[in-house]
Amino acid sequence: MPRETASKSTIRIVKNDSDERTEQHKEQAERIDSQVCEVCFGTGVEVIPGKGARPCKCRAQDSRRKFLESAGIPRRYANCTLESFKTDLNKSQTNALFYAKALVRDYPYLDRGLLLMGPVGVGKTHLAVAILRGLISKGVPCLFYESGSLLKRIQDSYNPISKASEMGVLRPVFETEVLVLDELGATVPTDWVRDTLYQIINTRYNQKKLTIFTTNFLDDRDAESGGPDSSDVASDAKEKTVKRSRPSTAYTLEERIGVSLRSRLFEMCNRVLLEGADYRKRSLS
Predict the structure, then answer these.
(1) pLDDT tens digits, residue range 265-279?
(2) Phi/psi of residue 128, nearest 5 degrees
(3) Which of 16, 49, 77, 242 has the greatest count of CB atoms below 10 A from its CB?
(4) Checking DSSP bridges between strand 45-48 and strand 52-55, what pairing results, if any?
(5) How far is the C-alpha of 118 from the C-alpha of 277, rounded, in Å?
(6) Taking a C-beta distance cutoff of 8 angstroms, is the pair 61, 33 a contact?
(7) Per-residue buried b or exposed e for 250-274, using 16+ beta carbons within 10 Å of the residue's own CB
């Protein structure tokens, strides 16, 4: 009698996006010392002889670890810090680093974020992540999102089988103290894209929440005409522009995100232009 072989179906477990983001960034959080505190031995209370007890400093360290884990910083940028940002004697990058350090130093005693503008590969995302890490070290809850990924998550929430809701995705974006929205304008500007970006940015604008943006799009379509006004950057950035350092694009930032949003960004952010060669290409040479 022939032997009957039962075929077993393979079950594939698909994790949702939030689970993937959490696991992806646990490695970053583990870099922060997680050993048992030698002061309070894990109790969270530090005893001061003759004075009583007070919350141990390790509790603040625990909060920073949680903030780092939930910030959503991409693994590729996990080691980006202000100290590791290389300016290559480029005045515009030195100027941008100055703004980044000032933001971390002065927060929360300021009310404007940064709009980091420039071509690809000049360090905009590095600086944005470095700012978040600096703020997290001060105990400030922060969140990083690439704008296209955020829009995709919102779209996915419309799927009937999705466990996420639109407000479930947007609530942390609205409420986090500091948000980085990377690659602003990169997504093709359909009506839905513009309406959704308006909802996100306008909500944070009305709540006076600090936001940091990066974008490859400038305010001047003519990439060789000088880009953003030098009045928006430090005086030492008024050097003669090298043509190849400007991003070449057929669109302005206003055309990508709309007039209303561009107007709000003027009030929400200090505009900072970065120039230079693409460091990714330099690494291959």
Answers:
(1) 999 999 999 998 888
(2) -60, -45
(3) 77
(4) antiparallel
(5) 11
(6) yes
(7) eebbbebbbeebbebbeebbbbbbb
